[in-house]
């Protein structure tokens, strides 16, 4: 039985990752900002003994340190860390705000950096870190597209660089880290027009992650395992 840690497990892709790993019999540490209001996640933990709900806000380093220390004190190791929590704000050029850029970068970049660093020491040998990125972070894919999700696209490009910068150190500890796009998924963030259901995306992500090895460290891939150009 593997130990799985998920950030942003209150809804969307994070909740489905927790569900599918729970059903597979893994030991799931499902984290969310506010366990008191995470009804779907609490329901999951009531249905499965192998799901533990813990408070973790990726922009609050103390919550990261406190959970990493709890895991360490128990002598547990994490086999798969899904750094999934993220946010997006739509603003057209001309309407950009410093608040939206700051909040998006703080959550999607600074938060993910602190998650990577904070949990590195509790990762198992052969453990895998999946940093949930987006094709919108790809210069090649976005080309000259001008959308309303610039702060988000910038944050995912920066996340990709973060993965490249940290993957070699993690690899030397025997830990794989990749940037992975889940596809366009029907969630609060993706909207109902999206291509994939959360079930489809997460089934594909789990299969892809199970097939990754240390050789793949630092890659930018999609949910099917195909490499995405930077
Ligand atoms: P949702 O908006 O449905 O869920 C976002 C999750 O992130 C929620 O659980 C939310 O918690 C959590 N979250 C946000 N900020 C924080 C924080 N500071 N600390 C802890 N948790 C936080 O999004 P998705 O499920 O669609 O997205 C999950 C990941 O997938 C994101 O990284 C996103 O960028 C990425 N992605 C999604 C795509 C899609 O089409 N859906 C496409 C490409 C990438 P709370 O309930 O407390 O707000």
Automatic annotation (TrEMBL):
It holds the Pfam family adh_short. Transmembrane segments: none annotated. GO terms for molecular function: oxidoreductase activity, acting on the CH-OH group of donors, NAD or NADP as acceptor. InterPro entries: NAD(P)-bd_dom_sf, SDR_enzymes, SDR_fam. It comes from the Bacteria. Gene3D superfamilies: NAD(P)-binding Rossmann-like Domain (3.40.50.720). Belongs to the short-chain dehydrogenases/reductases (SDR) family. PANTHER family: SHORT CHAIN DEHYDROGENASE, SHORT-CHAIN DEHYDROGENASE/REDUCTASE SDR. This is SDR family oxidoreductase.
């Amino acid at each position: 039985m593997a130990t799985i840690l998920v950030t942003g497990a209150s809804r969307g892709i994070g909740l489905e990752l927790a569900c599918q790993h729970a059903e597979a019999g893994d030991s799931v540490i499902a984290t969310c900002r506010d366990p008191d209001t995470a009804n779907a996640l609490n329901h999951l933990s009531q249905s499965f003994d192998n799901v533990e709900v813990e408070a973790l806000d990726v922009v609050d380093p103390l919550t990261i340190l406190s959970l990493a220390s709890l895991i360490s004190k128990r002598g547990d190791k994490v086999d798969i860390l899904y750094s999934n929590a993220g946010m997006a704000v739509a603003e057209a050029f001309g309407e950009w705000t410093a608040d939206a850029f700051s909040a998006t970068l703080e959550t999607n970049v600074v938060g993910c950096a602190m998650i990577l660093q904070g949990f590195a020491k509790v990762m198992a040998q052969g453990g895998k870190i999946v940093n949930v990125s987006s094709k919108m972070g790809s210069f090649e894919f976005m080309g000259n597209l001008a959308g309303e999700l610039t702060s988000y696209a910038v944050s995912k490009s920066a996340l990709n660089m973060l993965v490249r910068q940290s993957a070699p150190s993690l690899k030397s500890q025997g830990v794989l880290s990749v940037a992975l796009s889940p596809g366009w998924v029907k969630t609060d963030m993706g909207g109902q027009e999206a291509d994939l259901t959360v079930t489809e995306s997460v089934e594909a992500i789990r299969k892809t992650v199970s097939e990754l090895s240390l050789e793949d460290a630092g890659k930018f891939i999609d949910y099917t395992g195909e490499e995405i150009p930077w």
